Amino acid sequence: MSEENSEPKPRERRFSRHSSEDGIPLSNMSGRNRHRSQASQMSSKSLKSVRTIDRAQYHEDLKITLKRKATRNLIFGNFIVMFGCSFIFGYNLGVLNLLKDPISNFYTKVYSERANCSNQKIIVENVSDSSVAYQTQSPTLNNNCVSDNFLTILWQLTTAIFIPGGMIGAFSSGFIADRLGRRKAIMLCEIPAFFGAAFALIACWLNSPEIFMIGRFITGINCGMATQLAPMYITEITPFNLRGAFGTGHQLFITIGIFFGAVFSLREVFGTDSLWQYAVFMNIVPAVVCLLGFFFILPDSPRYLLLKKGDRKEAEKALFFLRQTEDIHDDMEEMETESPEDKSEEKFTMSKLISSKNLRMPLFITLALQVIQQLSGINAVIFYSSNIYKNCGLTDSAIQYAVLATNAVNVAMTIIAVPIMDKAGRRKLLLYPMLGMILILTILCVSLNLTPQASWLKYISAMSVVSYVICFSVGLGPIPMMIGAELFRQGPRPMALSLAGFTNWLFTFVIAMSFVSIQEALEEFTFIIFLVLMVFFTIFVYFRVPETKNKTFEEIAAQFAPGDMLEVEEWIDDTADEIDKPPMEDETFLKNGSKPTTESDVVFT
């Protein structure tokens, strides 16, 4: 007998959870094992043993056949949800930054007209020709009809009212996603975007700042839902080996949205007194694209269809579309072997999420990362950027392009993070940039305070702003929400993301309401607060945040709460000749790398 024939006979492993005619659960086998079972009718196989195995270990063995390449349909599906949810959120973050002057002028005009003190005519005598000319006085100077303080309050209200809407949208997204499904929830989420965009035009037609503010609140609801539904859908439709790249795509489209929001707000585009409302109205474009894409083309999440709805047929159809292959048996098995204790999502409530001992640590990590993202100092750096650029000698008209360039750097660095997320891992891309942010905050604090003594330090401050944005774009920008979606099994995931989103928006609101007061009290020393916080945050990430790179949901969740055991059947092939001399079909299978997909195919063991 040859050396090859002296090797142990190959074994098959398949889990048993449901019974079938021959005792082998065909519906729950991987694609390869399923065909082997059919082939076993032609070859002699005997049951070696029946034993139990940890689900995470079973998934580790299964991952060899779960690795996938990005198909056209998968890319299309991710693009639609990113454009309709991630982009629209970023766009609404960036669109108002450069529109303060035209919107303030709109408020001034409306409230001055309501007070009957606008457009007063001042008679000016031209001494040279004794003619009389009329000059229109600025409404802000017309007997103080609209004071600067009143305008400041109106502007703060306009920007701040967006956040409570986001909190409501984020908190409700999990309930809606569980009740309606991911697909219908995303379609429903786009409806507020239509109203928010339309209200901007209506507000100008009716000269009503109040309608515009209501529109901003409604738009906040849309963005709050979008920021949770996008990572939820992306995580559930994407193969485990591509989750990092596509998960980073969510943050990438947010940065692209911020960039285009700033572009459309430029004075040369829509940033004028007569056109600013159209910059806000452009919000409707991604909403329309997303709504049409999901209504006519994209399926619901296969995991939701199988594990929540129990609709195996629709789950298979969704996988056929996303994977663009009929060989989706291993994907189905990976979902089916996720711990069954979390398959009764109709019973999984927010109170159960909070009270569950097994979920306390992943929930704490998820919420902590949202807090870290908001308290990292990124908003303070962006707030100071205009003053820093001005100190470098830039004019007011040039500053808007400097801010735009900073946004472009944000986009570029997030693009770089996409291919390395699944290679470097989440932990490294969190820790190393956070260490860099600590160093940059130190430099920024020193340079801002010593600039009066050394003017050249103002350029160091400008470089620090760009460097800080780079570090944030690679780490704390894309990772917190992505890890939040990865740490949970199918059951608690929607509720966990809802709570995470609410926490993120809540601390956004806290920063927005308190930062101006802190900045006025501490001035350039404001960054010391964020520096100290970042040191503690980095220590927390090092000791508590796990690595989720290239792991299935079950493997990740098992680090905190191992699922129940699987019963596994190990089979051994008694016909050595069939092993040593595979049929021609198997030789073709090995050469072209394709998998048999029909019942008549004979699988090489």
Whole-number total of structural domains: 3
Number of extended strands: 5
Helix/strand-derived class?
mainly alpha
- CATH homologous superfamily (4th level) name of the largest domain: MFS general substrate transporter like domains
Helix content: 55-70%
Low-confidence runs of at least 5 consecutive residues: 1-43, 118-143, 341-346, 576-581, 583-605
Q: Which CATH C-level class of the largest domain is it? A: Mainly Alpha
**Mean pLDDT rating:** 80
Q: Kindly report the CATH topology of the largest domain.
A: Growth Hormone, Chain: A
For the CA atoms, what is the radius of gyration? Answer: 29 Å
Number of helices: 26
CATH architecture of the largest domain: Up-down Bundle
- How far is it from the N-terminal to the C-terminal residue, by CA? 20 Å
Widest β-sheet, arrangement of strands: 1-5-2
Q: In one word, what is the shape?
A: globular
Strand content: 5-15%
Q: Biggest sheet: strands, sense, closure?
A: 3 strands, antiparallel
InterPro entries: GLUT, MFS_dom, MFS_sugar_transport-like, MFS_trans_sf, Sugar/inositol_transpt, Sugar_transporter_CS
Keywords: Cell membrane, Membrane, Transmembrane, Transmembrane helix, Transport
Pfam families: Sugar_tr (PF00083)
Membrane topology: Multi-pass membrane protein
